[in-house]
Please model this.
Amino acid sequence: MVLFGAFSLQAQRPNIVLIMADDLNEYVGAMGVYPGSLTPNIDSLAGSGSLFLNAHSNAPICAPSRSSMFTGIYPHRSGNTGFKHWRKNEALANSKTIMEQLRDHGYVTAGVGKLMHQTWKAAWDDYGLRQDYTPIAFDGEKKVGYPSMPEPFRNIGPLDATFARLSDVPVVAATDETPGHSGWYSFPYRKSFRCVSEQDRDQLPDEKST
Model:
């Protein structure tokens, strides 16, 4: 979960807070679909606002949906429909993001974590930690699907196959090509993720962002 804040320099205008979370679908308690989902804070937030039951993204994958949301340009208009950096798209590169628009109108903008699929810090007054999908399973050279995740999900991709309890520590066996690795791994920082127990471990990315 990541945060975008815009803070007005004029007292009569409201501050703006936007919270984004990846891949929730209907897996939150407030949706009432999965009774086993324990999401009290999201449920509380939904109970104090509007809960949309028929919401859609502008594209079926993350990157173009996010760039479309922050620029106001549909993917079928910009041609940005994949994972290519949105700043390399002519239509998007020559348009202002909502952060820049707010800054032009007297707001101070700040963000942290994954908002755009590819972060462009120049659009913000202040930007904190970059996007970080860890901890993940690691084979000694690259990120891999979580070993305990059943097929076909394990081979969908490392990011979509890493949902597990921290206590279920991944052990990836060595092969002829890779040395293997025991334990969680922080891929962006190229180091092991320390996890002795729930109380004795490195901070998760969401905790750092908060």
Notes: Residues 149 and 161 are 6 Å apart (CA to CA). Residues 62-71 form the longest helix (10 residues).
